[in-house]
Every structure is written in structure tokens, then in C-alpha cells.
Design a protein that fits this description.
Blueprint lengths: L7 E5 L4 E5 L4 E5 L7 E3 L10 E6 L4 E7 L6 E7 L2 E8 L8 E20 L2 H4 L4 E5 L2 E6 L2 E7 L12 E7 L3 E9 L11 H16 L9 H13 L31 E2 L3 H9 L4 H15 L9 E2 L10 E2 L13 E2 L10 H15 L6 H17 L18 H21 L5 H18 L1 E2 L4 E2 L26 H14 E2 L2 E2 L20 E2 H13 L3 H12 L11 E3 L4 E3 L5 H15 L4 H9 L4
Antiparallel strand pairs: 1-2, 2-3, 3-4, 5-9, 6-7, 7-8, 8-9, 9-13, 9-14, 10-11, 11-12, 12-14, 15-16, 17-18, 19-20, 21-22, 23-24, 24-25
Protein name: Glycoside hydrolase family 15 protein
Pfam families: Glyco_hydro_15, TREH_N
Keywords: Hydrolase
Amino acid sequence: MSLRIEDYALIGDTQTAALVGSNGSIDWLCLPRFDSGACFAALLGDSGNGYWSMAPAGEHRLLGRRYRPDTLVLETEFECAEGTVRVTDCMPVRDEHPDLVRRVECLRGRVRMRSEAVVRPDYGGIIPWTRKHDRRLHYVAGPDTLYLDSDVEFDLGDHATPRAEFTVAEGERADFRLAWVAPRAPAPRSVDVGEAISRTAGWWSEWAAHCDYDGEYRGQVVRSLITLKALTYSLSGGTVAAPTTSLPEKPGGVRNWDYRYCWIRDATFTLLALLNSGYEVEAAHWREWVLRAVAGEPSQMRIMYGIEGERHLPEVELDWLPGYAGSRPVRTGNKASRHWQLDVYGELMDALHQARNRGIPPEQSVWKLQRALMGYLEEHWRDPDHGIWEVRGGPRQFTHSKVMAWTAADRAVKAIEEFGLDGPADRWRRLRQEIFEDVCENGFDRRRGAFTQYYGSAAADASLLLLPTVGFLPADDERMLGTVEAIREELEHDGLLQRYRMGGDAPEVDALPPGEGAFLPCSFWLADNLIMQGRVEEGRKLFEKLLSLCNDVGLLSEEFDASSGLLVGNYPQALSHIALVNTAIHLHRMPGPVEQRASSGRSGS
């Protein structure tokens, strides 16, 4: 059984990432990219699926762990009767190939340590050939070649479990370095682990220093921005939703999805979080990734893409892995990539509009793309879709999706009105008004005084909290006040929100067994609505409750299970940290990112 999700910390090199447990074990690492096969997959199975442990050999306890300030260099301290040791872990921002370095330092006494380096390529499915050359281990399996260099001897008596036991006395240290190289590439040169750690810490500190948020939540904001940077594939600019797959939304359940891809849904939120924190370069790279990914016919646009813009993400079940807490199936790929989702057209149009507003120079081809998207949307905005939550039931007329079609039309009109671009402004104004009236007529329950999940239903949906944030209606409009109250009445549990109601007499929209935790981004969106309504202290209280759910090193997953008090879902979750940044800035200054986005559309309502 793996540790609790919140017991893991993240390290990464902006091309892939690892999860390091509070017990010193690295239980998840995909090489060489986020979406590659994992060579350590104990997170989704057991020790036979690969891990790299590092801890005192005898009875011991965790003394504490932390990141070095404003870095992604992790320090974990253990205490035992014989003394105290610190394990430092990081992944240097790569030059030639991915590296993971570890340093063990004795701070007090004399401590016997144990390390086991169980490499299992292809998501824990292959036992590699393992050879030993002096203090270097060489692992080979198909396309995967890894080298482990260390200051100590590993015993290969059991070739499946290379093991080392060694002693460090006060002031002594032992260094380790794991490297992946491409097939047929030469073996890596040795490195100075101490220099690699210092260089990595300096790189992250320099990057974090560009954050220009100086409010009371700066520590949490910087940690979230570092996490977002770590989840961004530096070669393309795409940000993965999470570095993991198949961490369950409910332990033992089947809602286990692969999140190692990039969602168009997150485009505007990501862009605004970066722009409002001082990271214009990253925002521009993200926009360029979006443009490359969606290039082509508007009818072929996807809701998610691979980290280089790949469109084919076939969903496969890994039947040899028992899953985290027995949650099966374990999946790679994501079938939802084939869904048609209306809201992504609005997200893309809005992201490009926000980039223009902030002076990111547009390419000449961008407006041509936007005009093509609008031509497609004019013909198809009335079509049912799978909605923002990518439900696996049949398509429906989701209210949020229609509002995002309105957003696309609104931003197209604004491009003409505010930037002088050429286009059929009158026609798009009529389209904008037609969609607005359609939503208010068919997506609003007059009896309840609230917008509903889809046309003809009475169900609440937390995505409707985004209506004022795109400027469809002011947050204090009577219809939005009623919507927020309906969402809280139906979806709020212990102060946090679920996405929509499941089970019982709830409408069957997703064709899956019920069961998930509170969806943390939705709860941040509720805080944003409260702030926009003028209920600032109530919004702040909710925001601080959400901050309290971060683990000891400041990380959030996708969801929170109030019954167990544990984080659930893929981890760490980019959208949760994006929402944290945007709400923190919203509380600190006006207009913040949420208000900026909302004000973009108000004159079109």
C-alpha cells in the first residue's frame, strides 16, 4: 500500500517529475518525459513495481521535511536513536539527459542507512538486466537505459532488488545520481552532486524572484507558481494537468484518469495566473503551445493534447498494476481526448484576447485562426457536447458550454472594437446576443431562480460559477446570486464543493458509478464569486480554508475527501494551484486576474 497522497512531495526538471514520499522512497518517476512509461511505479502498485528508498536502516521517525526556500530542492530529515540524517533530493534542469540526484548527510551521531534501487521500466512491468561496474549500476530494458552512480556499494545478490547498507557519521555524506540515456547513447559522465544541487537551487531561486506578487499569501503563491513551472514541459511550453495517472477520485473506485496531458480548458486561467505574477515569457510560451496544438481545421480541435501537441492519446488499461489503494483500472492515455467539447472554443478565444490585452505580440496567422473558429462556431454552437467535465454519458446541451460559446463571440467582437481587426462585427454581435438570450431562456430555472447544469434540468453544476468570471453576468446579478446559493445548497459539503451531484436521484450524466471528493478548483471559484459579490471576508475565509488543505510542503491534489480528511485525485494538480494563485491575487488587488477576465465581457452582456 502506498503512502497517503499528501505524503508525497514533487521534484522535477521541467520535462518530467518524481514523487518522493515522506519515508524517503521515490515511488513515481516517468522518463524521459511526463507521459513516458514510469520506471518507478510503486505509487500504483507495490514494491515489485519499482521504487528507490533512502532512509535509516533501523527504527526511525520523520523529523520534518521542507523545500529550500523558493526552490524545488527537497530536504527530508530522519531521526533515530543513533543520530539524525538529512536526505536532499532534486532533479537538475537538464542539459543532455534527465538526472535525479540524492545526498545523504549525517547531522548528528552515526547512522546506519539502507537504500534499495528497484528500477522497473514500462510502468513497473519489466525487470531489467542489471549489471555492476565498480560503484555504477547499469539497468537495461528495451528502450530504457539507466545508470546509478553512488559513493557506496550496492549488493546485487538479489538482482531484482539492488540494495546498499552504509554508515554516515556526523559531518559525512554519501551522494547518488540516477541518469536516463537514450538507446545507444554513450554512458553519462560522472557529476558533482553537491554542485548539481546548488545549481538547481540557484536556478529555481532566480526563477521565483521574478514573482511580483507581494501580498500576504506570497509563500503559498510562489510555491504554487513553482509547481506550475515544474509541470510545464519546457521544450514546448505546454502545462500538464498533473504528473500522475490513475490516482483515484475515490479510493477503490474507477474514476482513475491519466492527467499527464495539456487541457485547452485551462488556457485562460493559466495565462492570467502567469501574466499577473510577472511571468510574461512563460505566458507567451503557453500561448504559442496552444496555437501549435490547435493548428488545423476548427472541426478537428481537441479538448486536450499531448505535451508536444499530440492528438492521439489512446486509452489503455495496465492490468498488471493493482492501482493506488486498489483503485482499478490503471489507465494511460485518455479517451476523453476524442470528445467534442464546445467550451474549448471560448477558452481559446478568451486566452488569445487576454494575451492581446497584455501586449503579447500576436502572430499574423492568429486572427485568421480565430476567424476560422468563429465560422465553425456559428454553425455548431447549438450542438450538444460532453461539457467541461468530459462526461462519458451522452452529449447534452450544457449551460456552461453555451456560455463559453457566448464568450467566443464576445471576444471576437472585442478584437474588432478594441484592436481594429477586420471581421463581421455586426453579425457576431447578433450571434452573441442570440446565445445570451438562449442561455437565459433555456439554461435558467425560474422556479429555483438559478442557472442549471444543462437545458431542461434542475440540477446545479459548479462550472456555473464561471459565468460572472467570463463577464456573462455580473456576480451580483439576481440570477447569479440565486445560482451561487443553489450550488451551495446542492453541492457544498463541509464548506467545499463537488462538481455536480452523483448517485441517488441525480441525473445520470457521466455513465460512471458515483463517488468523488470535493473538487478544489470549484471551491476557489466559489471564493472568487463571493469576493466579486462584495462578500470579501467570507471569500477570504473560504480561501484560507482551502490553503489549510495544502500538505506540509504546500501541494494540492485535484480533490479532497472530507470523510477521510485526505487529498484524492491526481497530484499535484495544476488547476488547483492556478486557482489558488488567481484567488490570492484577487484578494490582494483589483483588478486581479478574475476581475480582468470578467471585465472583458461585461459590455457584451
